Amino acid sequence: VNIDMIRAAAARLNGQARRTPVLSSPFLDEIAGRRVFVKAECLQHTGSFKFRGAWNAISASDAPGFVAVSSGNHAQGVALAARMQGRQAVIIMPQDAPQVKIDNTRAYGAEVVLYDRDAQDRDALMNDLAAQRGLEKIPPFDHPLVIAGQGTVGLEVAQDFKDMRGDVYVCCGGGGLTSGVALALEAAAPGLRARPVEPEGFDDVARSLSSGTRQRNTRLSGSICDAIVTPTPGELTLPILQRLCGPGLVVSDAMALRAMRLALERLRIVLEPGGAVALAAALFLPGEGDVLVVASGGNADPAMIARALAA
Amino acid sequence: VNIDMIRAAAARLNGQARRTPVLSSPFLDEIAGRRVFVKAECLQHTGSFKFRGAWNAISASDAPGFVAVSSGNHAQGVALAARMQGRQAVIIMPQDAPQVKIDNTRAYGAEVVLYDRDAQDRDALMNDLAAQRGLEKIPPFDHPLVIAGQGTVGLEVAQDFKDMRGDVYVCCGGGGLTSGVALALEAAAPGLRARPVEPEGFDDVARSLSSGTRQRNTRLSGSICDAIVTPTPGELTLPILQRLCGPGLVVSDAMALRAMRLALERLRIVLEPGGAVALAAALFLPGEGDVLVVASGGNADPAMIARALAA
């Protein structure tokens, strides 16, 4: 993946994805002890940056339909991007996924195929569906066109903060967004450096960066930041992160909830816990100089918003 | 007030106010039975459009300081705009105003002067302060520079939806925002027509428009939409509304709360009840054709957000 692929993605996304605003508040600056700028990607179509990578992958292909495994933001991004381009989307979800996520994915126009976590192999199911129905697979992060699409977030940041020096904190799961942003900054705003931010206990990227070898999470559930919990960094993304990113940062669930509350009160945006970890790092971890934050998603259900308000 | 004054305001606000994004969701379109576009002015500095009028009035003056009466969004808009321009702001607030509003106004750099609602006349107090300290008064809506500043919202809408025909629903108190938007649309997007939206029981503008004479509200408290409750339309604003707006629309508090909840879930923005009435009208009142909504403010406290989530 290189900057030309990200620029090509930006051209494809032009007029289709939203150019999300950068928000700030003197109240947040005071808490952080530094100026904090928040790229509100929760305001993207479907409520997360995932729409960008999906749109780019679909635009670059002439396949009539696409298949993805996801119960969350990637599902919705693929579903809407496919519908907007008149293509078919098939989303494979566990049959015990929350009904609201299944309903939302269907409402964006996708066909949802449910599978039994205990009895079925979801990757085999995806391969079968792809082969039988001529669908193209769109992985959630480890794919050049997906990384390039997410990288357009970094290109917009670079345009807005071209001459700034400092860190860009990015909520990080498999590393698709973080690696794309890092590549865009390298080319278009070399004074800025991406820093992955993860939830405590699910810091495979931070540990992989510090050890120099791919690390895995010991568990995959139990975090409220479910949107950014993945087993291990991608094969494409990790080398990019190693080459370009500063050390990973880690925040607690409690910090993510407090960041959600402050985003509601001071920025008037809804973040989901996984989309709030970068803001939490800017507000509650030590650090110097102006900082940019990519607030990656806002698909929090009412119960989680209520929980943040009480935090 | 005319379009040239609004264009001059836009030039003054350029690079200082945020150009707020227009959001939408297929879920909202389905509820409304029409396409709904939401100008998210809750993402403006200080959380409401009020920053625009304040910035414009302050920029156009060379006074060293300004005085305003407000316990809400106007107070914060004047405070921050003054501080950003290195001027002084004195805000007169009732001594029983919620502490958080007093604290926020002070945090934006203003001097807060408290008065006793029962024993003191706030307008006399403002006039005394203005005379003694050489401060210029900034009224909340009935002032040409304030109306022109708020009108820049309409200019941005006109640029984004130049060729559209239909209604622009605007949350309406004294009519500063609605009249400014109406003037901008008349000149720059004549296919669009402003429609004031008010809370049930506080529909002085709707009744003034339908009767042709200035009407008053019988009470001034008891609505959760406190940000847009005013005694009667302005002397400057009402003639503009009469000349340019379609009939006023009225929604219940329950509708405003449901619109708040849908804005949280589907647009990932926080609206206050008074800033949600225009969206409520688009979603829950009968109407035809694509509709634009100005979501005017997002300064809801956590208890009100929690109430909306339970609606």
Write the layout of secondary structure elements.
Two copies of one chain form a homodimer.
Chain A: H1 3-13, E1 22-23, H2 26-32, E2 36-40, H3 50-59, E3 65-69, H4 73-84, E4 88-94, H5 99-107, E5 111-115, H6 122-133, E6 136-137, H7 144-160, E7 166-171, H8 176-188, E8 192-199, H9 204-211, H10 237-244, E9 249-251, H11 253-267, H12 273-284, E10 291-295, H13 302-309
Parallel strand pairs in A: 2-10, 3-4, 3-6, 4-5, 7-8, 7-10, 8-9
Antiparallel strand pairs in A: 1-2
Detailed description of the structure:
Chain A has helices spanning 3-13, 26-32, 50-59, 73-84, 99-107, 122-133, 144-160, 176-188, 204-211, 237-244, 253-267, 273-284, 302-309; strands at residues 22-23, 36-40, 65-69, 88-94, 111-115, 136-137, 166-171, 192-199, 249-251, 291-295. By secondary structure, chain A is of the alpha/beta class. The N and C termini of chain A lie far apart (40 Å). At the A-B interface, α2, α11 and α13 of A face α2, α11 and α13 of B.
Short key terms for the protein model shown above:
homodimer; 311 residues; alpha/beta; six-stranded mixed β-sheet; four-stranded parallel β-sheet; 13 helices; globular
| Largest interface summary | A-B, 30 and 30 residues
What does the overall shape of chain A look like? globular
| Quaternary | homodimer
Whole-angstrom Rg of chain A = 18 Å
* Uncertain residue ranges of chain A: none
The secondary-structure element order of chain A is HEHEHEHEHEHEHEHEHHEHHEH
- Distance, first to last CA of chain A: 40 Å
The number of helical segments of chain A is: 13
Question: Helical residue percent of chain A?
Answer: 40-55%
Please state the average pLDDT score of chain A.
96
Number of strands of chain A: 10
Structural class assignment of chain A? alpha/beta
Q: Give the spatial strand order of the biggest sheet of chain A.
A: 1-2-10-7-8-9
Largest sheet of chain A: 6 strands, mixed
Strand content of chain A: 15-25%
